[in-house]
Design goal:
single chain, alpha/beta, 6-stranded mixed beta sheet, 10 helices
Amino acid sequence: MIIITLKQNQNQYLEKIKQLRLMDDTFFNSCFDGNIPCMEVVLRAVMGNERLHVTEVFTQKNAPNLYGRSVRFDALATDGKAIYNVEIQRSDEGAIPRRARYNSSMIDARTVSKGTEFPDLPETYVIFITEHDIWKRGKPLYKVRRTFEDTANAFDDGTHILYVNGECQSDSPLGRLMHDFFCTNPNDMYSEVLAERARFFKEDEKGVTAMCRVMEELYNEGVAEGAAHATETERLKNIKNLILSLGLTAEAAMDALKISKDEQAKYLALL
């Protein structure tokens, strides 16, 4: 297996960093990890509550279950009362209803300790920020709730699922937030909090170095996975992962995965 060093790919990384947006999960995770002000900007716009105060935020947290499968949350945050899971989804496939169900259940599994009484379970919010309007109804925000079939009354189990439509970039607080999530230039953002954080990883020497290292790790992980899995389905998955996480072209992703030029046309047709 060939491991690509930071120095070998640094120029390529620097060009990619210029094009990164908060809608790219690699950049989102870096900007939001441990950053309470940034998460407050997001949750206040999504929840419509300017008084919401975040007390803790983490990104890329794993939660295993009894059967060995785990979920890696893009971001987890709490205001001391509720737990918020914010997921960035550029692919519609990643925001399907059963993914929301799984994330919701894994939040409970991760946060509930022995002896917790059911009434003490916190409210949970799984929030998908999607690049496209996956429900095709033109709404900026979709709120999902469980109801009784015969009365349509709410089944109040404390779980909430929300979809933020990235295509709606109006002059509302949520629309401005989505505008900012699609900006490659921090100077074009409405939120100075988000802009300042984005500038750190795009312009500050320490921030740029940190981003380069993150991209190097993801690149090498993709190469390693590509070498370990030779099936067509796994190769296709690894190509998509490199495209979405690092912003590579399909051709560059396939080159990184050592897919021969003769085979690349086949995978291009499947993407």
